[in-house]
Write a structure and sequence with these properties.
The chain has about 550 residues and is an alpha/beta fold. The chain is built from 21 helices and 15 strands. The protein has a 7-stranded mixed sheet with strand order 3-11-8-2-7-5-6, sandwiched between helices. Helix 16 runs parallel beside helix 17. The N and C termini lie far apart (about 70 Å). The model has no long low-confidence stretch (mean pLDDT about 90).
Amino acid sequence: MKINLRIRERKLQLLFLVYIVLPVPTISLIAQNIPAGAVIPDLFAGIGLSAVIFILTTFMTTKGLRIFYFALLAAALIPGAVLLGYLLFAKVLLLEDTLMTLFETNTGESKEFIVHYMNPWITLGVALYALVPAVFILKMKNLTCPRIREHRKTFTACILLLFLFLAVEPVAQRIYFVDFYRIFADYKIRTVMEEKAIKSRQKQPFEVVLSEDMAPQTLVVVIGESLTRHHMSLYGYGRDTNPLLTARKPSLSVYRDVISPHVHTIPVLRDILTFADETHPEYLTTRPSLFELFNRAGYETCLISNQPVGESSSSYEPLLQLANRATDLSVTNEPDGVLLKTLEQALKSDRRKLIVIHLMGSHTVYKFRYPPSFNRFNHLEQPLPEQKDRLTENALEIVDQYDNSVLYNDFIIASILELMERKDEPSAMVYFSDHGEEVFDFRNFTGHAFEKISTCMCEVPFIVWTSDRFGRKRKDLVYDEARPFSTTDALHSLAHMAGLNFEGYDASRSLFSPHFVPRKRNVGDLTYDCVKIRTAEEKKKESAGRVLSGQGL
């Protein structure tokens, strides 16, 4: 006995399925980071899933049908809105690493984004995106409801096919909202396992030998946020965004060829706080991390952060909790200057100490990262270093705001150095940014996203200062500013500077070692050379587009 599908009478169900299942793979054809050929299997998978669901729902009553489709709408709405929104905005499809970063975004960042980027048109678009399929569901009727026992083979086959689409990974990855939740589940399982492994590791013996005649009394590590060296006058930018550090340049080592291993904060911090890298990600759980090493060596360890500390949503949070003392100043919702008083108090300790400072730096929204007194750059009065006639007035204002945040960051780093100089002791400061930022530098884009990766997003500042007493103490340290380096090896370098020795230490990976050996550098799963090539190609494409439109003439 055949099932009468009555397609004409069930057209709302078909429209709903097409609306929910197929737009993401269809619009993915415009994605610049996904080959069109790779999208075709996604389309076929979506069509197959729609057909299976359509047949299965013929066995439901009208009430059951509506409940099922509302559940499907709820499951697909958030993944669909996120992926479609980014596809239409940036012409790229979000990849797994970026989605994991989104899962870890803290509530403060989310509120900031919603308040300052959700305009009425976006709100209306999201509302309509949810409302249209809801109307379809409310108008659905199931005129016939065949009995399952009369169509066991068909029903069983559809159940098996549904299991294939939802549970068999190679197929499930082709269905965008199924893959979205698969990634989320994998992320949650991974973070729970990592947290357990890190806690249990604290009970295991691991010897760290401290060479007291080599160790600094104070080591301060400052981790910046979203600062590219392309907007720093210290590195040649046309605007004077680093007047204070430039004045101090004779006492600084300013490294010219340092990159970040990723372009998002979370994976970067997971790398720089541990020995994990692209070839050995398991080292995050099997080897000690930054605070563990220094704790075992007898250092007093202190974390001062203007980014949230204690939010379990961040997968690097268990690594931060290992500090002896942690101060979360993000609750004040103030620029980074709020950190200075806490740092001044921490520096008073007579114990040998490691102080890690995590700045808010130049995080979006840029205009909130500095006080009004640092609102100094204005494109109307001070033209940008390069002619940017292609940019809108709003884009030019954003560049001004970013440069103001860089200027304020210059003040913060100089202030940290000033506080450290007040104590006449062997001390050192290392500053680097987690990753860079692209700010309309060669195309109409601002931010950082692996899907649109460019050199601006991974080429970061790396600055070292040492006191005179520490310089005399450590003649073995090499400060070669031209060395090519990735901050994925930051822990080897900091351990070397701090006079630590332990199993697994590799002198060839320390930036300050006479035995340093340059290594192949990666940004995510791309080589740095590949990133440079992609950036050059994007610049050519953008330049050619401006010439064709008459903007470059």
